[in-house]
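Changelog entry

Holo records now carry the ligand SMILES as an explicit input line rather than a separate metadata file. Below, a converted record for copper (II) ion, shown in the new format.
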Amino acid sequence: MGVVLAITGESRMKRTNELIVALAVMAVIIVVTWGIYAVGDNMPSGVTPFSKDVYQLHNVILAVVTVIGVLVFTAMFTSIVVHRKSKNYEAAKFSHSTVAEITWTAIPVLILVVMAIPATSVLIDMEETGGAEINIKVTGYQWLWQYEYLEDGINLYSTLDRESNRARQINSGVDVRTVENYLLEVDNRLIVPTDTKIRFLLTSGDVIHSWWVPELGWKRDAIPGMVNEAWTLIEEEGVYRGQCAELCGKDHGFMPIVVEAVSPEDYRRWVEQRRAEMAGDPPSDSEQLTSVDDRAAASGDQG
Ligand SMILES: [Cu+2]
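Structure line, unchanged by the conversion:
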């Protein structure tokens, strides 16, 4: 009788081990497959060296936490299913293990330290605003953005474009799907040169806003009475769209950001043209307005 019990106990143990191995193998396959897909379908890698660093960091950390998650859940579910009471599994009786405690403290600490090294280097890089060739002051208002090019003396206001604004009105009768870049287009884009280090100084004239263009790899709060810093260096010409990312009032969803990166030559041309317009050649309506109050009065109540 005793021999029979010993044999069934042994075969049960064997089956348990088999299941653990099977689950572990399955987990590895899931992680590898997922990793391959994740590289192709993930958050945008952006268009600046910094945004690409952020993207790489994200991939590395996501891989680490996924492996940890799969291992922990595999162990957990294996224990729950295989070692359940209805199967008469006999629980271990020990109540203290110094080795286990040191191990489950040391390994997570080690993992955190390893993850902190690349994360810190990216964070330090994010604050490295020195050596910028162009400084742009960004001011958030309810509900538009002001851009001041400090070196070139250009000042512009950027509000939701007319078409989106018309379509968004209640009972406008406009099918918003027919509006190109609905709620992601502005009247005056932020024109910037490529391959140029640009420093942004962000603040607000009323409540807290947040300036966010995903392709640049960062988001920064614009806070009244405070100046936050950020920088970018866009490598590819193109149009990059973003939005205010801090709930700032009833029209929070209607103050998009559009950055247009052009070649440095085109940028200079734009600056000259803009200056000429500001100097007094027949300015358009928008340039005649100098204060936000004028601007708000001109655009009327957008609610
Ligand atoms: Cu806002």
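Spot-checked after migration. The beta strands are 134-141, 144-149, 154-158, 190-193, 198-204, 209-213, 218-222, 228-232, 238-244, 257-262. The chain has two domains: 2-126, 134-299.
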